[in-house]
Amino acid sequence: MSAVLTLLGALDDARLTFRSRAALDRHQDRLAHEHLRWVAAHSPAVAARFRAAGLPLSRWRELPPTDKAAMLATFDTLNTVGVTLERALAVGRQAERTRDFTPTLATPAGPVTVGLSTGTSGTQGVFLVSRAEQARWAGTVLRHLLPGGLWGLLRPQRVAFFLRADSPLYRSVRHRQLEFRFFDLLRPLPDLAAEAQAYAPTLIVGPPGVLRALHRTGVRLHARVISVAEVLDPDDEAALRDWGDVVQVYQATEGLLALPCPHGSLHLNEAHVHFDLEPLGDGLHRPVITDLRRRAQPFIRHRLDDALRLHPGPCPCGQAARRIHSIAGRQDDALHLPGAAGESVTVWPDFLRGALAAVPGLHEYRADQTGPSQLTLHLDPHTPDTQAHALRAVRDALHRSHADPTRMTLDTRPLDPTPPGTKRRRVTRTWRPA
């Protein structure tokens, strides 16, 4: 039955390719009308938001946005499957302790998958996915990411997941031509490399930082590479092409947000999710999402912490869904540094990532703002050459971002290894204004 549901989900998703913005908007309006009526009737927290705002459901686009903290605070009455936050966290944390990710939660609505985010923004997110939502997710991923799409099932496919945590969600595709293997990131890297070499996957899914470290071991693989969980920087993409085609997926606790097209563009998943994009300046936008299909844990006018750059023009593939040029980083990781007149200037992570990625001989790095005018570069390797090139590249990038390096203290130090299972963040801000 799971294979049938998954295939139907993939075929349903295949029909949802819109060639005009007007047709896509009409599709979203139809979904929103039915979805919001159901959610408001089954989620007391969502209904309370509309009452507090004095808005009818038809004016949902005017609903004040919520965020992760508010979602967790109202979790017990937000979800529609009768799961408390305490219970969800207990199941998710037990799975992470035991490394057994097979259990699901039994609810009156049926079995529900529980997952936890890494919590790199300071608050660990929780997600609930019903069996029907799991099948739709699997079908969508199958069509967009499998080599050759659905036709890829004509030959055996071996999928390697290099992830912090396994999940029944990833194994929900049941097909005789598909084999899955979870590679636990808490295991030593040489062991993972040896097992991957023996497994010979046709599809590799993992964070680019982990896959790049795996690539440096010299393991030879021939597979399509799917970047998840972290920003895919150009230097990582170029290196991983040694294994095969490289594409990025934009997925978070809040859902499957963008998928690649055959031309390599990353399109917002607007067939299923409505995006309002709040301008942040410098051509960046912060998404406010409304998932038009997700019912177990509704996301209605939910503000994300990410900063996106969009492509201004249409994609050669003909899809009307907007496409992402780059994910600049999380708003919490934006640096606030002094400008020429001493004013505070925002420097987005992608400026520094681009600069440091071009430093000759630099394997890995992290830039961390540790004070109001203090920036520390953690470098691997930490040599006189990499120090000199990195400092010069960062000063140039700061000038382009209208920050003033002469008003700052820039220093370098060796990069400490990232603990296994930890999400890589190449630009961070550990300093917070008082």
UniProtKB/TrEMBL annotation:
Residues 399-434 are annotated as: Disordered. It comes from Deinococcus soli. This is Adenylate-forming enzyme. Residues 422-434 have a biased composition (Basic residues). InterPro entries: ANL_N_sf (IPR042099), CapK_Type1_Caps_Biosynth (IPR053158), CHP02304_F390_synth-rel (IPR012685).
